[in-house]
């Protein structure tokens, strides 16, 4: 889940120096995290650098009212993350 440290990290990356939108940012980060998980599979935002990066970038696009551009601009990163995040199940067949 999204914690206050993620909000602070996002704000630092995006040079946001005020606190009045922290609640909105937390909500946007939550929605972005869920969306990236829906597209790429479950991941721990604290462990996956690429997953966290995609969550932060999607949230940046939301914050700037440009979400419609995010998927076109990050499609290769999303597909790459989907492939590396896939759970491979070995069933014993050749």
The percent range for strand residues is under 5%
Order of helices and strands: HHHH
Q: What is the CA-CA span between the terminal residues?
A: 38 Å
> How many E strands?
0
Average predicted confidence as pLDDT: 94
Helix proportion: 55-70%
Query: So what's the oligomer here?
Result: single chain
Largest sheet: none
Shape category: globular
Uncertain regions: pLDDT < 50 for 5+ in a row?
A: none
SS class: mainly alpha
What's the total helix number?
4
Characterise this structure:
Helices cover 67% and strands 0% of the residues. The chain has 94 residues and is mostly helical. The protein has 4 helices and no strands. The longest helix is centred in the N-terminal third of the chain and has 19 residues, at 22-40. The chain is globular and about 50 Å long.
What is the gist of this entry?
The chain is mainly alpha-helical and 94 residues long. It has helices spanning 4-13, 22-40, 49-63, 67-85.
């Amino acid at each position: 889940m999204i914690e206050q440290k993620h909000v602070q990290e996002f704000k630092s990356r995006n040079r946001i120096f005020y606190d009045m939108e922290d609640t909105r940012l937390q909500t946007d980060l939550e929605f972005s995290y869920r969306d990236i998980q829906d597209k790429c599979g479950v991941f721990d935002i604290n462990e996956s650098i690429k997953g966290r990066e995609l969550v932060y970038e999607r949230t940046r696009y939301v914050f700037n009212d440009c979400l419609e551009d995010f998927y076109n601009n990050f499609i290769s990163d999303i597909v790459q993350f989907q492939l590396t995040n896939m759970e491979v199940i070995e069933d014993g067949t050749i």
